Amino acid sequence: MSEQKVTLQVTGMTCAACSARIEKVVSKMDGVETANVNLTMARATVTFDENKLQAGDIIQRIVRLGFGASELAEEGTDNASEKLWRRQVALFIFSAVLSLPFLIGMFEMFGATLLPDFLMNPWVMLAMATPVQFVAGYSFYVGGYKALRNKSANMDVLVALGTSAAYFYSLWLILRGEEHVYFETSMIIITLILLGKIFEQLAKTRTSDAIKKLMHMQAKTARVVRGGVELEVKIEEVVLGDVVVVRPGEKIPVDGSVLDGQSSIDESMLTGESIPIDKKPGDPVYGATLNKNGALSFRAEKVGQDTALAQIIRVVEEAQGSKAPIQRMSDVISGIFVPIVVGIAVLTFVVWYFLVDGGLQDALTIALMNATAVLVIACPCALGLATPTSIMVGTGKGAENGILFKGGEHLENLQKVSVILLDKTGTITKGQPTVTDVVLLSDQFHSEQDLLLLAASAEKRSEHPLATAIVKAGASLGEVQDPEEFEAITGRGVRAVAQGRKLLIGTRRLMQEAGIDYAAATEGLARLESDGKTVMILSVDGQVSGLLAVADTVKESSQAAIAELKGMGLKVVMITGDNHKTAQAIAAQVGVDEVLAEVLPEEKADAVKRYKSAGQRVAMVGDGINDAPALAMADVGIAVGTGADVAIEAADVTLMGAELEGVARAVRLSKATIRNIRQNLFWALAYNVVGIPIAAAGLLSPWVAGAAMAFSSVSVVINALRLKRVNIDA
């Protein structure tokens, strides 16, 4: 199978029934793995096997359903959206101008005569109502026809049925010579629904503000050195390898590594952390961050769509277009809602015509008006918008705070977790250990420095953080030579031949497996480990020769962040490859509920599995690389990153900052978003559940039902926008 993913711009969707219909049909195509249609963003994301079909086949299938579809292209999308928006506004103005006299005419029921008599002539009313019905209301007929042709029903069906009933009934009355007609009902319903769509669109554009803000953060130009000359070029013209110069107060244009200079850089737009980060030669810098107080020159290493900012935008866009599990409920309801409503409307008509007002002169009028009110009040627009609008605002707010959710499902799942497993190194601690103690245990060496230099030589080819600390300490004493042989033993240590001597550096288990007696090291091990240090036994030529102790400092915010998580009722567990004494010493500093020590990297996933088997919902927090299996096994994998692309790709949620407090903020945002979705679903359903019986009882005028239906969608979007003001810091 050759898996491909395509994002399509879909036009013509008016309610959740449309998006559910497209999703259902596309999902059943042979070769389609997943299909996700987002009503709010008017997008469909489809994963498919390109050996079985192409993106064009999917587009054709959507078009045959009666909708428009094309591969997403940003510039073309903007132009098409702008054109559609202008047409929507023009139709509303056209409809409002023709409907206004009839709205004013309604004041006559209160005794006020505000219109000239000729406007009340039925034939004049017919002339004004006809263009509203068939020009402004044309899209409802088209949408309704396409839906019915594909054996489904949507909001357009209800609007077209309701307004047509009022229009053609009035036409019939005119032909019979009647004076009292009901054109104002159909005209005002159409006008109000068009107005509601405009308000809805205005509110929806604010839900995607986060993406626009991120895009606008990028610098427009860059100052590069070419041929010894400093040139200012457009950011699109920066190429890999360019030396870029940045002055104090300027934005970093692209990603790279510092070549010269020192400065502090505000990376809050990436990480959400407000404290500037000091940069020196060799340190990474990221595009769109702000250079504070020093001049820097750096080499461009990532440009265009490869920069961290571009990746963040891509992740947020995909998350906003994804669907949370909670939305399935509204999709199911929307799929069966319209046929049920049509049935209720028919029943309403029958009851009012034959039973309630049977025999009365106005029976037909009353039955028709009440059935129309049922059709109009029942449109499931708000239900369709309830979930995607909250997901869009929630993921956008997360991105603004350095929290990247890779999908709506993760935003929903995080608030359900009951246990959080925290990897120690790089998550609770800074992940930058340093050598604190060197202990000689034999007379093979003249000094601790000789022992350390040999150990550094053995560890030179290792990429483990502890090895890095040893090599760095050795390099401060002299030249660190390459080992003749080297083997990394996962979770235990290294075996090497350096300067002609056979070395083993690592844990008790490594010594046991090699058959080396380490009794002489026992006392020193206990003493150093009780101080929370990671201690490695060093064996030379089969004899224990010394101990190397390395300490990793706990992050300043870890203790407070863990206390916050426990305050939320979560069980916090630290998981580490360190021995029990070292792990307990760190655990005592930060206050976790439980410690899992001496856990090999491949065993971390098993630990996650055990908690899940016990019925817990588990979130795993790690650095996104070594913890990958455990992150994948957890219900929610959270990578604590620093803006690196590896961290972005590694987990369900990525914290762009390095501090653990981001986990608590992510949980708060998840809880707030799901609470907001539930509010939206409640009010959307309550509106229909309450409104339909009132309309069926004859207590709701059709045009009032139209106004209520139009503004229910707006209220749902406005409620979603409240998420922007939610405080996730405490």
UniProtKB/TrEMBL annotation:
GO terms for biological process: copper ion homeostasis. One of its GO terms (molecular function) is P-type divalent copper transporter activity. Its EC number is 7.2.2.8. PROSITE patterns: ATPASE_E1_E2, HMA_1, HMA_2. SUPFAM superfamilies: Calcium ATPase, transduction domain A, Calcium ATPase, transmembrane domain M, HAD-like, HMA, heavy metal-associated domain. Its main location: membrane. It is found in: Cell membrane. Pfam families: E1-E2_ATPase, HMA, Hydrolase. GO terms for cellular component: plasma membrane. Residues 4-70 form the HMA domain. It catalyses: Cu(+)(in) + ATP + H2O = Cu(+)(out) + ADP + phosphate + H(+). Keywords: ATP-binding, Cell membrane, Copper, Copper transport, Ion transport, Magnesium, Membrane, Metal-binding, Nucleotide-binding, Phosphoprotein, Repeat, Translocase, Transmembrane, Transmembrane helix, Transport. It is a multi-pass membrane protein. The chain crosses the membrane at residues 89-111, 123-145, 157-175, 181-199, 332-355, 367-387, 680-697, 703-721. It comes from the Bacteria. PANTHER family: ATP7, ISOFORM B, P-TYPE CU(+) TRANSPORTER. Belongs to the cation transport ATPase (P-type) (TC 3.A.3) family. Type IB subfamily. Involved in copper export. This is Copper-exporting P-type ATPase. It comes from Tumebacillus algifaecis.
